[in-house]
Amino acid sequence: MFLNKRKVILLISVSSLIFFLIFNPVSSQELRVVDGDTIHLNGEKIRFNGIDTPELKQTCINEGVINPCGITAKEMLIKKIGNNKVECIREGKDQYKRTLAECFVNEESLSSYLVRRGYAFAYRRYSKKFIPDEDYAKINLIGMWSMEFDYPWDYRKLK
Questions:
Q1: Do 71 and 64 form a contact (C-beta atoms < 8 A)?
Q2: Do the domain assignments include residue 63?
Q3: Within-domain flag for 6
Q4: Number of Cβ atoms within 10 Å of the Cβ of 45
């Protein structure tokens, strides 16, 4: 009888564990923000399609003061993501074999967020999607639009 009770307890324990794992899936992400427009998500390198942010070493001038606008773009992205789950819609690969995607937090586009806050630019060479967000930031002198700056693609040519 004692052995049967142990078997029943073991069976109930294993069944409970299986039930818990099946009906309560653990949803975790391995996320690292590389810069303002690139993340590593669960081992996949993702480049935000249709936008371009300043390079990490890139600076802007705000009323004579140097502003680390490349770092600021990265920090804005980190803060926006916080502890939220990032979901991406993949759109292909680029020449460097990175996944091109538009990524979202709580159904809000991270690309649109960065462009609208003036720390990313609509990358017209590849997409027209974020031009209205850029126009908004430019008209309202938000973010880099209130400073002296080089476009990221021009900055890269100088380096």
A1: no
A2: yes
A3: no
A4: 15
